[in-house]
Design brief:
Layout: E1 4-5, E2 13-15, E3 24-27, E4 33-40, E5 43-48, E6 51-52, H1 59-74, H2 87-95, H3 101-112, H4 120-134, H5 142-165, H6 168-197, H7 210-232, H8 239-253, H9 264-287, H10 293-326, H11 329-336, E7 339-341, E8 349-350, E9 352-354, E10 357-358, E11 362-364, E12 370-371, H12 382-398, E13 424-427, E14 430-434, H13 445-452, H14 455-468, E15 471-473, E16 480-482
Antiparallel strand pairs: 1-2, 2-3, 3-4, 4-5, 5-6, 7-9, 8-11, 9-10, 11-12, 13-14, 15-16
Helix pairs in contact: 1-6, 3-6, 4-5, 5-6, 5-10, 7-8, 7-10, 8-9, 9-10, 10-11, 10-12, 11-12
């Protein structure tokens, strides 16, 4: 019988015994035995050294328990960890950690009785898990990944200390829940560090949606608050540190309290404020005493998060400028979802691959725009240029002019009760399809004005639109909505009803 690979830990295998009465070995990638699975009354148990896992009805589950103990005691394998495919996968992996809380609490109650939650290491582990719950959505930038990595140490260190110290009945109760928590933590640390080094598309470049930008800004605020509290906790502050703290507070006060990616102008204003905050954080890092290790770590963290968020907002502003040429930002991202946009080379080029085919490359122009095959007018963003060359590639492949309509990118106010969207198609000056007769909301003058406005004009147009009742602002998330919208159409889950006073 062949060895069976463990699904949860594919670098380990369960090797069947030569004799049915003997336990089955669990071996690692180098074929070294790390533990064994023994048959017990009613099932199986995994054994790793002196530690034993819970009774399982499946031998493979018991073998996974052996792998858990091995990870906890020896760390992950020497193989190069794979980065997470995206923010969603990373967040799902991190979310497994707080779900171990109840097992830790239950086992601690049996091991330490009424003093369980006052046990030093148990209390530190629970505090670390609470921090991870608060920072679950920090994984939206490279700097956010590094913040979560630092917080994972607040779980890993006390869990390792407790596992190494526990003996007797205490170890019997605590060993497996601690090992399971440590295994998940070690795996998350290795893969999150790889993700921060080589971030996937949704952690780099323009934000995929306005809500992701707001989450990154919220992470910046939380990190600023942590740094502020850390500075105030110091017993002595040199004058330079006090001045740096004042600049830090001034920089944070410039950040918007509402959506930060609803327009090009807001993106750029927020990015500029974030740059100032990052500069202030670096000043704090250089001004506080060397002994304030926690403050230094938080200052560097804030600088990284603010810088990354600023860069992504600048990229989002460029993408918004190109959106009109493709229809919408969502259309551009839809075109790119199956493509691979390579990193920029020293020559200023980026590959654009669809499957095995190179459809680009695109090239940065001397004025910072992007061009490529079939592009006559350069784009402001590399994503806009990449979408254009992919569109041309599909047109050439089909041997026809291709018109793509992505109905999911239509504004909510255009969607009919039956889920369809009114459509009007014109070729040259001839209307070849028009089902817009019933309930079509045409693209209004306000939209055209905002699309072509610069930063100062944008603000003036919006103020006039509010005064005329053409726009109304959501009292919950501050999103600007068209007059005909019955509820908020902003990013995220907010769907607050239109206030009666705006009617």
């Amino acid at each position: 019988m062949n060895s069976q690979v463990l699904q949860a830990f594919p670098e380990f295998r369960l090797r069947p015994p030569a004799d049915d009465s003997a336990p089955a070995d669990v071996v690692d990638a180098h074929d070294l035995v790390v533990g064994h699975v023994a048959t017990v009354s009613g099932g199986y148990r995994g054994h790793a050294g002196a530690d034993t896992g819970p009774r399982r009805t499946d031998a493979l589950r018991a073998a996974e328990d052996v792998a858990v103990f091995h990870f906890a005691l020896h760390g992950p394998a020497d193989t190069e960890p794979h980065p997470y495919a995206g923010a969603a996968e990373a967040r799902a992996a991190i979310a497994r950690l707080p779900r171990q809380r109840q097992a830790i609490v239950d086992s601690a109650a049996r091991a330490y009785f009424f003093h369980a939650l006052r046990q030093e290491h148990v209390a530190a582990i629970l505090d670390g898990l609470e921090a991870i719950v608060r920072e679950h959505f920090a994984i939206g930038t490279r700097g956010g990944c590094l913040r979560v990595l630092r917080l994972l140490d607040q779980i890993r260190e006390p869990a390792r200390a407790l596992l190494s110290q526990a003996t007797g009945d205490e170890r019997e109760w605590m060993a497996f829940p601690l090992a399971r928590l440590l295994a998940f933590t070690e795996l998350a640390v290795a893969r999150l560090r790889a993700t921060a080094t080589a971030p996937p598309a949704d952690l780099d470049g323009p934000f995929p949606d306005p809500h992701a930008a707001d989450q990154a800004l919220a992470t910046t605020f939380r990190t600023y608050r942590d740094l502020q509290a850390g500075i105030h906790a110091l017993l002595f502050l040199p004058d330079a540190a006090l001045r740096a703290l004042g600049a830090l507070d001034d920089g944070a006060a410039q950040l918007p309290s509402g959506p930060c990616a609803k327009s090009r102008s807001v993106c750029r204003t927020t990015a500029s404020a974030l740059d100032e905050l990052a500069t202030a954080a670096r000043s704090v890092d250089g001004a506080v005493p060397d002994t304030a290790a926690e403050v230094h770590a938080l200052a560097q963290e804030l600088s990284n998060i603010a810088t990354d968020t600023s860069a992504r907002l600048e990229a989002t502003a460029l993408l918004l400028e190109d959106a009109g040429r493709h229809g919408s930002v969502r259309t551009i991202l839809h075109i790119l979802q199956d493509a691979d946009l390579g990193a920029e080379s020293d020559a200023g080029t980026r590959s654009v691959r669809v499957g095995d085919c190179e459809t680009g490359p695109i090239q940065r122009t001397v004025d910072g725009r992007w061009t490529g095959p079939s592009i006559t007018e350069p784009y402001r963003s590399p994503e806009g240029a990449a979408a254009a060359v992919i569109d041309h590639f599909h047109d050439h492949e089909a041997g026809a002019v291709r018109v793509s309509v992505h109905l999911d990118s239509a504004e909510d106010r255009l969607v009919r009760p039956d889920g369809t969207v009114p459509l009007r198609v014109e070729v040259e000056d001839d209307v070849v399809l028009d089902d817009s007769a019933e309930g079509t909301a045409k693209r209004d003058l306000l939209t055209r004005l905002l699309d072509t406005a610069d930063d100062h004009q944008d603000q003036a147009i919006r103020e006039a639109a509010f005064a005329a009742g053409v726009l109304w602002r959501c009292p919950n998330c501050q999103w600007d909505n068209p007059r005909e919208a019955a509820c908020c159409e902003g990013p995220g889950p907010c769907r607050v009803a239109k206030p009666k006073k705006t009617s």
